[in-house]
Amino acid sequence: MSDQAEKLKQKFNTFSLDEHTQKQDKKGTHTIAVTSGKGGVGKSNFSLNFSLSLAKQKKSVLLFDLDLGFANIDVLLGLQPKRTLMDMINSDLTIFNIIEKGPLGLQYVAGGSGFNHLFQMDVNKLRKFFIELNALSGHFDYIILDTGAGLSQESLRFMLSSDDIIIVTNPEPTSITDAYAVLKTILANETEKNIEIVVNRSTNEKEAISTSRKLQLVAAQFLQRKINYLGHIPDDPNVSKAVKKQVPFTIEYPSTPATEAITNIANSFLYLPPVEPNGLGGFIKKMFAFSRK
User: Fold this and answer.
1) What are the C-alpha distances in Å from 159 to residues 90, 150, 195, 224?
2) Are 111 and 86 in contact (CB under 8 A)?
3) Are 234 and 225 in contact (CB under 8 A)?
4) Which end of the chain is more exposed for a tag (fewer CB within 10 A), N or C?
5) What is the DSSP string of the chain?
6) Are 284 and 133 in contact, with CB atoms under 8 Å apart?
7) What DSSP string describes 18-84?
8) C-alpha dihedral over 248, 111, 144, 228, to 10 degrees?
9) Distance (Å, rounded) from C-alpha 29 to C-alpha 278?
10) Are strands 100-101 and 107-110 parallel, antiparallel or unpaired?
11) Sign of torsion over alpha carbons 80, 81, 87, 91
12) Cβ of 273: how many Cβ atoms within 10 Å?
């Protein structure tokens, strides 16, 4: 074990989940981590518009911008967050003090500079993070975690602790290869994780299905796992137009093919076979457990 890993383990051995982090999640909050094998595939744009599509279905949604070092949900929304997770951790602010309001009732939280070193912080700051996160129990149907592309240790912990992981890829061979690497690492740590695939910027449905099947086949052959294909988003010029306007494309262009596609993806997700969510208490316990390994 490396010195850094040993120090991290010692940190978590110094405290346990007390009554503050065992609040019952009566709402059954469902946590979803969104990731990709590489940057530039449209992951954050997907996370935002997927969240908005769930909000349109009368779901209460909180979006966490955890793309550590490249956080841009606020840029896509054309908003400037007043406070971040790092502000909360380093002060007396609560989680509710840093939640920002977005369109359609969507709420979001910005990570802030330094959040990529979350698990290197002192034990009191870590404890505060877990306690404040648990305070959200019962307030939201879905918490969407827009994690960083690739496999940083922080991002991996968030993914492994979530109820579902959505991997966003595109038809480029490098993107497929990188998505498989993420998939392999996830399943090496937890074989029963619920994982879905979304193919972004596809030329047509045939190309998207071909892309998803490549990942599904190698997952079945080498990892002995069945991976769900949620759907695809076409390469739609209105998406880049909306980005330049700093307005989500589902709002700026409600009838464009990309909006229709992500609406179908959200509906497909909602109609997946029901799985009892772990709730935020379960999410926190899993983060705790993975961090102590």
Assistant:
1) 24, 11, 10, 20
2) yes
3) no
4) N
5) --HHHHHHHHHHHT----GGG----TT-PEEEEEE-SSTTSSHHHHHHHHHHHHHHTT--EEEEEE-TT---HHHHHT---S-BHHHHHTSS--GGGSPEE-GGG-EEEE--TTGGGGGGS-HHHHHHHHHHHHTTTTS-SEEEEEEPSS--HHHHHHHHHSSEEEEEE-SSHHHHHHHHHHHHHHHHH-TT-EEEEEEEEESSHHHHHHHHHHHHHHHHHHS----EEEEEEE--HHHHHHHHHTS-HHHH-TTSHHHHHHHHHHHHHHTSPP----HHHHHHHHHHHHHH-
6) yes
7) -GGG----TT-PEEEEEE-SSTTSSHHHHHHHHHHHHHHTT--EEEEEE-TT---HHHHHT---S-B
8) 100
9) 8
10) antiparallel
11) positive
12) 6
The pLDDT assigned to 69 comes to 61
pLDDT in tens, 139-186: 999 999 999 877 888 889 999 999 999 999 999 999 999 999 999 999
Q: Would you say residue 99 has pLDDT above 60?
A: yes
- Give the confidence band of 268 by pLDDT, cuts at 50, 70, 90: very high
pTM greater than the 0.85 cutoff: yes
Rounded to whole angstroms, the Cα distance separating 121 from 129 reads: 10
Q: pLDDT tens digits, residue range 195-246?
A: 999 999 999 999 999 999 999 999 999 999 999 999 999 999 999 999 999 9
Query: Closest Cα to residue 220, out of 189, 198, 187?
Result: 187
